[in-house]
Design brief:
eight-stranded mixed β-sheet, alpha+beta, about 375 residues, 11 helices
Length: about 375
């Protein structure tokens, strides 16, 4: 039985990406998504004293990201980027007593990665770092160095870009694991992190199948959606990710916004591409859910997907992956009363997201996948 009072996770402080080209990765987030570069300074240092790792801190509203790169190819940061391509290597969770939370997790069987940074092994080669409560909405530890992100040369001038999208938090983290690994991940999240299972179930559409479980902190501010492919079914989206990424890992981060329609338009003007949705999805939407807070015409125009639970609705959309391996992408999500992931038709959503057919999908491409809870409701994460 876990001790949720010991871990007491309250939020996601930041996500750390390990990348091959620091300036290029930063420029993509600054120009495309409107992140601002965090200046160095503050109490303490995050980077190693030998300067082996260079980091850039980025912020947009309540979302903090760190980009890290290492020149030494043998350094773990460089090794992660080489094995998986650019991706989320660390999720920092804030808690009442990070030292106690780290010690408890290790006592329960978690694999320690770095005792100084209070980091344990997470999903595949990704890690979980325990951070203080003051880190909610700000970097848990200040950056040693930050460098300007040069322009990529392909986007509009900064003065011509629309204002950044207002994002308030990392809504959830989507994780893909190989077949047979889901049970161990559930135990890890429960025993070591103090998260509880809020729902999960089996999803079958056509010849593809997957299991999905959602684990959430008592605070509701930290949510991991874990997806495992059915080895007996036809290979699909999750298999594509596992092949391209080289094993288990974080497929996407969902950024919460207060106005998804405005956000999509602004991001589109910045050059961000989104997945499209078949017209048939919207033809049946009002019959399935009734009238929505965002007009049907706007949903159709912007390819916004709709989900709902007992508390209300949520609206979401997925960016088209620009990752060299077609693995990682972002989600934009707006919640209007919904606190979980909904109760609706899984087939309609799967078709909307799986628009790129196997005949046109690149060999290692991936598109977002969805989960279901026990009474067959669906969820896209």
């Amino acid at each position: 039985m876990n001790n949720r009072d010991t871990t007491n996770i309250r939020g996601i402080a930041y996500a750390e990406f390990h990348v091959e080209d620091l300036a290029k990765a930063a420029a993509n987030l600054v120009e495309g998504f409107g992140f601002s570069i965090e200046p160095p300074g503050g109490q303490g240092e995050y980077a190693p004293s030998d300067g082996a790792v260079q980091r850039i801190g980025l912020r947009s509203g309540g979302v903090r990201l760190i980009l890290a790169a290492a020149a030494d190819p043998e350094h773990p940061v460089a090794e992660f980027a080489r094995r998986h391509g650019d991706g989320v290597a660390v999720v920092a969770v804030s808690c009442q007593d990070p030292e106690a939370a780290y010690a408890y997790a290790v006592e329960q069987g978690a694999t320690p990665v770095d005792a100084h940074d209070l980091t344990i092994a997470g999903f595949g080669d990704s890690a979980i770092r325990f951070a203080p409560l003051s880190a909610v909405g700000e970097l848990a530890t200040p950056l040693r160095a930050a460098v300007p992100a040069p322009r990529t040369g392909s986007g509009p001038e900064p003065s011509a870009l629309p204002p950044p999208v207002h994002v308030t938090a990392i809504d959830h983290v989507a994780v893909c694991v190989p077949s047979g690994a889901l049970a161990g991940i559930i135990e890890f999240c429960d025993r070591m992190l103090g998260l509880r299972r809020i729902f999960g179930g089996y999803i079958k559409v056509g010849s593809q199948g997957m299991d999905s479980v959602v684990m959430q902190s008592e605070s509701g501010a930290v949510t991991f959606t874990v997806l495992e492919p059915d080895a007996a079914a036809e290979p699909g989206q999750i298999d594509d990710f596992l092949d391209g990424h080289g094993g288990a890992g974080i497929q996407h981060l969902a950024l919460r916004t207060t106005d998804i329609a405005d956000g999509i338009r602004r991001l589109g003007e910045r050059g961000v591409d989104f997945l499209s949705t078949p017209a048939a999805y919207y033809d049946a939407l009002e019959q399935r859910l009734g009238r929505t807070e965002i007009p049907l015409g706007t949903l159709r125009e912007l390819n916004i997907l709709v989900d709902q639970d007992h508390g209300g609705r949520l609206f979401q959309i997925f960016t088209r992956s620009v990752h060299t391996r077609r693995t990682y992408f972002f989600e934009l999500i707006e919640r209007r009363g919904a606190s979980t992931f909904g109760t609706a038709n899984v087939t309609a959503l799967y078709e909307a997201i799986d628009r790129e057919t196997p005949s046109t999908r690149p060999p290692t491409a991936t598109t977002p996948a969805e989960g279901a809870h026990d009474d067959t409701a669906y969820s896209v994460r």
